[in-house]
Amino acid sequence: MADYDFKLANDTASSDSIDEVISALEDDDAFIFRYREQRIEEISRHLKEVKKNASEGEYGYVHTVESESELMQMTSKLNRVVIHFFLETFRRCSVMDDKLRELAAKHMTTKFLRISVDKCPFLVQKLNIKILPCVLSYVNAIERDRIIGFQQLGNQPDNFPLYTLEERLKKYDVIPSISETNYKNATRGDVNGLRSDSHHYRDEPDSDLDL
Fold first, then answer.
1. What does the pLDDT look like over 18-44, one tens digit per residue?
2. Which of these, 15, 26, 81, 208, is most buried using a 10 Å CB contact count?
3. How far from the centroid of its chain's Cα atoms is residue 19's Cα?
């Protein structure tokens, strides 16, 4: 197998440079074979986890947590967790709940939780939560992302497209970028998964939802 300069494929590389590296890799049969086998194994593990979680009935929905201790315990023991801090009286929190329910039904290896800020005053203060809705994402008990309000998810003041939330969670590996479509592509030797994600998100609060 030829030696390739993978230093090109970083955040500062031009898209043309990255495309040149990918084009070279696509012409290397040995690389494609190894990549294909690796992807099939990775996706197979993912689908087995999906099947296990579906059979146990603990995934596929948004679970309402009733206490801080329960929330901390679940966050510490689960691999991927999305937590929505909400108030029932905030309409935007209801909108966020609806979006998260849709994602929970699609992504069976991520646990989706929600807790009212009234029931977790210690965590609200410790995590410096001042604006709702607030969605925190954890991978292996480490915070990977924080979504505050809707401004990070589009320009609509009272709603946002589901795909913007889904893509953001994928960006931080809170929901894996793996599906049955990926499996079919991998079995065909498709290496498009190497392409980098060029999306960038702004962190701007919705000031009208201060607690």
1. 666 666 656 666 656 666 666 666 666
2. 81
3. 25
Checking 189-196 for CB contacts under 8 A at 24+ apart, the result is 189/32, 189/33, 189/35, 189/36, 191/22, 191/25, 191/26, 191/32, 191/35, 193/39, 194/9, 194/22, 194/25, 194/35, 195/18, 195/22, 196/9, 196/11, 196/18
Task: Give the pairing of strands 111-116 and 62-64.
Answer: parallel
Q: What is the largest CA-CA distance in the chain?
A: 60
Give the model's pLDDT for residue 134. 97
Q: How many CB atoms are located within 10 Å of the residue 131 CB?
A: 15
Looking at the predicted structure, is the pLDDT value of residue 101 above 80? yes
Q: What element of type H or E holds 63?
A: strand 62-64
Average pLDDT over residues 178-205: 40
Q: Are 82 and 107 in contact (CB under 8 A)?
A: no
| pTM confidence score | 0.64
